[in-house]
Amino acid sequence: MKTYISMLMLACICLTSCKKDKQVYKSEAIITGYDRRTCALCGGLMINFNSDTALYSPGFYLISNDPKQLGISEQTHFPLFISVDWQPDTSKKPSNFIVITRFKIN
């Protein structure tokens, strides 16, 4: 009986300890670069969710986050492929601004 209980406990430990922690993100996206339509330094980052790496591709969004929050600097090369959680930024107009809540560079 002790052997049976020991084997059962060992099996339970093995099954519960071998989980792979896979993080699931809302979307796959591409940060294509800075929006320079208004001025060279005041535009935000552009992102799209349609696998298009071109700047100003139809359906792009602007990121409200500071680029430094995303680990982006002047040396960052675009396009940048990421997995991302995001939500609309209702505090800004036009309505194509988003806030990134969690991300992973792929």
Describe the structure.
The structure is a single chain. The chain is α+β, with helices and mostly antiparallel strands. The protein has one domain (22-105). It contains one helix and five strands; from the N terminus they run H-E-E-E-E-E. The protein has a five-stranded mixed beta barrel with strand order 1-2-3-5-4. Strand 4 (80-88) and strand 5 (97-105) form a beta hairpin. It starts with a helix and ends with a strand. The mean pLDDT is 84.
Sequence-ordered SSE layout with sheet pairings:
Layout: H1 2-17, E1 27-34, E2 45-48, E3 61-63, E4 80-88, E5 97-105
Parallel strand pairs: 3-5
Antiparallel strand pairs: 1-2, 1-4, 2-3, 4-5
Largest sheet: 5 strands, mixed, barrel
- Annotation field: number of helices: 1
Q: Which series of helices and strands comes N to C? A: HEEEEE
Instruction: Estimate the strand proportion.
Output: 25-35%
Radius of gyration from CA coordinates: 21 Å
The average pLDDT value, as a whole number, equals: 84
What is the CA–CA distance across the termini?
50 Å
Number of strands: 5
What's the structural domain tally?
A: 1
